[in-house]
Design brief:
alpha/beta; 30% strand
Length: 270
């Protein structure tokens, strides 16, 4: 198993000014790198939090011309760190992919994952979301190679679909990335317990950077970026304000957790 490394979650309060959002995310990532981070994860919609299908489409770019991706690739080269660009709005036909992109220290895109599960919900009190009206869902699970092990990629609402994480773990995932913009309502109720459950069920680290605060159209996100151990311990919690957390990650703890409870080997058809 690989050596210990340091992971960071960057937590932001993104608005509609993409240049400003990119600048803030990059500044926090640089601080995380100065604090020792080798792998820096950013949240869902890190470059833009807007409201309405037309606004999302108008602010989406092809991947090759996306200004946020260009900035984050340059950031990876500058800091010589691995960067997870939480998600970016990438134009695909008449819809948009909510795409998570992994970037090497050389600035190369090494993996991309399009959010599979669409957040189509009615939370009460007039709070409703229909991601499927704007976004094209992905259709493939993605395992990415890091120097320290395999990263299972996911986004936000995917967290409620444990079979995705089980599949990733059984295919070799050591860490799960869960960049998110969890709502205040659902975050208070479910965020911590779901992240801990995915870690415990699979003996994996969970690295979950989050949006926080109040956004356009009074949308409220929960914050509390988390890093969770394979035993379910919360190793870092970002609280409710923009900032970052850094946590040492010991891949040996994955082996130890799975040795104690080898549930990945105990799955049975039924």
């Amino acid at each position: 198993m690989a050596e210990v490394f340091t992971a960071a979650c960057v937590q932001v309060n993104a608005g509609e000014d993409m240049d400003d959002n990119i600048a803030h995310a990059c500044a926090l990532a640089r601080r995380a790198r100065d604090a020792g981070a080798d792998f820096i994860a950013m949240p869902e919609n890190v470059a833009m939090m807007t409201w309405g299908a037309d606004n999302v489409r108008a602010r989406a770019f092809d991947e090759d011309s996306h200004p946020a991706l260009a900035a984050f690739r340059a950031l990876a080269q500058e800091t010589e760190a691995w960067i997870l660009a939480g998600t970016l709005a990438v134009a695909v036909g008449d819809k948009v992919a909510n795409r998570s992109i992994l970037i090497s220290p050389q600035g190369t895109v090494t993996a991309r994952y399009d959010k599979i599960h669409m957040f189509d919900v009615d939370l009460g009190g007039g709070e409703s979301y229909r991601e499927s009206a704007t976004f094209a869902p992905g259709a493939a699970a993605v395992l990415a190679e890091l120097p320290w092990g395999k990263l299972g990629m996911s986004v936000c609402y995917d967290l409620r679909f444990p079979h995705l994480y089980r599949t990733l773990a059984r295919r070799g995932a050591d860490f799960f990335a869960v960049p998110a913009a969890f709502t205040q309502v659902t975050g208070q109720a479910h965020w911590h317990v779901l992240q801990r459950a995915r870690a415990i069920e699979n003996g994996c680290y969970v690295i979950a950077p989050a949006q926080c605060g109040v956004h356009v159209n009074d949308r409220r996100t929960y914050g509390h970026s988390l890093i969770v151990s394979p035993w379910g311990e919360v190793l870092g919690d970002g609280g409710v304000d923009p900032g970052f957390i850094v946590v040492p990650i010991d891949p040996g703890q994955i082996t130890e957790a799975r040795r104690k409870i080898p549930s990945l080997r105990h799955d049975r058809p039924f």
